[in-house]
C-alpha cells in the first residue's frame, strides 16, 4: 500500500480499483500502473489500442495479452493524497467517449476485480483505525522516498542495496526510480488537467513480470528510426538526432532501461535510457553481458532460449507486410532468483541432468541444475505503429520493417558473441 492509498481505500475499493505504480517499469515515458497481480494498465492511445485489437495472430505470442479498457479518474483524499482509481466500462469498449461515474458497475460485480486484501477491506475485517495508522506510517516512508528519489533520478546507473531481512521479491515495491518518476509525472499531468477533465481511458495489458519472483528486465528501443509518420518537424529532428548519437543508427537497437538483481551483493542495478543513449556498440555489448550476469556468474543457460525466441520473432516480422514499429521497445525478462546449488560431491541422484554448459568456475565447488527458468521476449509500446490496414494513415509503407529486423539480427549476433566468448 503506497502513502497515497490510505483510509479512502475502504471507500473507493467498493466502486473501483485503486491503481499503484508498476515497479518493474524500466523505460518509456508513459505511466504504467499495476491493476492487479497479473494485469497492468497504461493511458489509451488510439493507435496502440487499434494495434492490439487487430494484430496478426502470429504476433500475439510476442506481445502482451490485451485485456480491455477501463476508465481512470484522478482523486484526492481529505489530506490531499493523490490517487488513481480505475472503473469498468459498460457496453462496447469502442464507445469510450463522455465517461463519468455512472459507468461504474455495481459493487457485487466488481469483486472479481479484487484480491483477498481488497475483499477483507470490503467486509470491514480491517478497521478504519488500522488503515489510518498504516497510512501515517507509509506517509512517513514516502517523505524519505521522495528525498532519495531526488538524488536517485540524477544517476543514470545506480545500485540499490536490498535489505537482508525478508523476501527479496517483497522488497521491490519502491526500489525502481524510473517507475516512480513516470508515476509522479502522470499524477502531475492529471492534476493540472483536473479542472477540465477527470476521466481518462486506459488499456489493460498482461503483466509480463507476474510469473517471476525477482524480475530482471531489459528494455531495448528497436529500429534505426524512432519518429512516427505524424511527427512534427521538431520531433522528427529530435528523434533522428537521438538515433544518430546512439547505437540505434549503427546496429538498430539501444538500451532504454534495465533492472538486474545482483545475487552476489544483494543489490538491484538500474540503468536508464540516458545512459543507454551514450553507449558505444562495445558498451552496448557490455551492458547485455551485465544483464545476463547476476554478480556471481553468467546466466549462460538463458542464451539458447533467448536466441531462439529472437530468431522466431525476426522470422515473424519479416512476413509482416506494411507494418512499421516506430519507437517500439522489446522486453527481455527472466527471473533473477538464485537457483538451488548442489555440491559436486553430492549423491549422484542429486546431480542427475546437471548441465555442464551451465556450470561456472565462479560458483566455486558447486554446480547447479538449471531450473525451469524461462526467458520472455515481448514487443511493447505501439503508439507510433503504422500499417496500410489501418486505413486512415496518409503514409503507406510496403514490405517488412527493415530497421527493426536489422536491430533484431544485430541483437542476436551480439548475444551469440557473448555466449561463445564466455564458453572459451
From TrEMBL:
InterPro entries named in the record: IPK, IPK_sf
Instruction: Indicate whether Kinase appears among the record's keywords.
Output: yes
Looking up Pfam families in the UniProt record yields:
IPK
Q: What is its EC number?
A: 2.7.-.-
Gene3D superfamilies for the chain: Inositol polyphosphate kinase
Per UniProt, what is one GO molecular function of this protein?
A: ATP binding
List the GO terms this entry assigns under cellular component, sorted alphabetically. Answer: cytoplasm; nucleus
Give the UniProt keywords, A-Z: ATP-binding, Kinase, Nucleotide-binding, Transferase
Q: What class of enzyme is it?
A: transferase
The text of the family note is: Belongs to the inositol phosphokinase (IPK) family.
Q: What is this protein called?
A: Kinase
Recorded name of the encoding gene? Ip6k2
Amino acid at each position: 500500500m503506497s502513502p497515497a492509498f490510505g483510509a479512502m481505500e475502504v471507500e473507493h475499493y467498493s466502486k473501483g480499483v485503486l491503481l499503484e505504480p508498476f515497479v518493474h517499469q524500466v523505460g518509456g515515458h508513459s505511466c504504467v500502473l499495476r491493476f492487479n497481480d497479473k494485469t497492468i494498465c497504461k493511458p489509451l492511445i488510439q493507435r496502440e489500442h487499434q494495434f492490439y485489437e487487430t494484430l496478426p495472430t502470429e504476433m500475439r505470442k510476442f506481445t502482451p495479452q490485451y485485456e480491455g479498457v477501463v476508465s481512470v479518474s484522478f482523486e484526492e483524499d481529505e489530506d490531499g493524497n493523490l490517487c488513481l482509481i480505475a472503473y469498468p466500462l459498460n457496453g462496447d469498449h469502442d464507445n469510450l467517449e463522455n465517461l463519468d461515474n455512472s459507468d461504474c458497475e455495481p459493487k457485487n460485480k466488481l469483486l472479481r476485480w479484487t484480491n483477498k486484501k481488497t475483499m477483507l477491506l470490503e467486509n470491514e475485517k480491517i478497521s478504519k483505525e488500522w488503515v489510518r495508522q498504516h497510512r501515517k506510517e507509509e506517509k512517513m516512508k514516502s517523505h524519505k522516498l521522495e528525498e532519495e528519489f531526488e538524488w536517485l533520478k540524477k544517476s543514470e546507473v545506480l545500485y540499490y542495496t536490498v535489505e537482508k531481512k525478508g523476501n527479496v521479491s517483497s522488497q521491490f515495491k519502491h526500489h525502481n526510480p524510473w517507475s516512480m518518476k513516470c508515476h509522479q509525472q502522470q499524477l502531475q499531468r492529471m492534476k493540472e488537467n483536473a479542472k477540465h477533465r477527470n476521466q481518462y481511458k486506459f488499456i489493460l495489458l498482461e503483466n509480463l513480470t507476474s510469473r517471476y519472483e525477482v524480475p530482471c528486465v531489459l528494455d531495448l528501443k528497436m529500429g534505426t528510426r524512432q519518429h512516427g509518420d505524424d511527427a512534427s518537424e521538431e520531433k522528427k529532428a529530435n528523434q533522428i538526432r537521438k538515433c544518430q548519437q546512439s547505437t540505434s543508427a549503427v546496429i538498430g537497437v539501444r538500451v532504454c532501461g534495465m533492472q538486474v538483481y545482483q545475487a552476489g551483493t544483494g543489490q538491484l542495478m538500474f540503468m536508464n535510457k540516458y545512459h543507454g543513449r551514450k553507449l558505444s556498440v562495445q558498451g552496448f555489448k557490455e551492458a547485455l553481458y551485465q544483464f545476463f550476469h547476476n554478480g556471481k556468474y553468467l546466466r549462460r543457460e538463458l542464451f539458447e532460449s533467448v536466441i531462439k525466441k529472437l530468431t522466431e520473432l525476426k522470422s515473424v516480422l519479416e512476413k509482416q507486410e506494411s507494418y512499421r514499429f516506430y519507437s517500439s521497445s522489446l522486453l527481455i525478462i527472466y527471473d533473477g532468483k538464485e537457483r538451488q546449488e548442489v555440491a559436486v560431491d553430492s549423491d549422484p541422484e542429486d546431480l542427475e541432468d546437471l548441465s555442464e554448459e551451465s556450470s561456472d568456475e565462479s560458483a566455486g565447488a558447486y554446480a547447479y541444475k538449471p531450473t525451469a527458468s524461462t526467458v520472455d521476449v515481448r514487443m511493447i509500446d505501439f503508439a507510433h505503429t503504422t500499417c496500410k490496414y489501418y486505413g486512415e494513415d496518409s503514409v503507406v509503407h510496403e514490405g517488412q520493417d527493415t530497421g527493426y529486423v536489422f536491430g533484431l539480427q544485430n541483437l542476436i549476433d551480439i548475444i551469440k558473441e557473448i555466449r561463445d566468448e564466455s564458453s572459451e
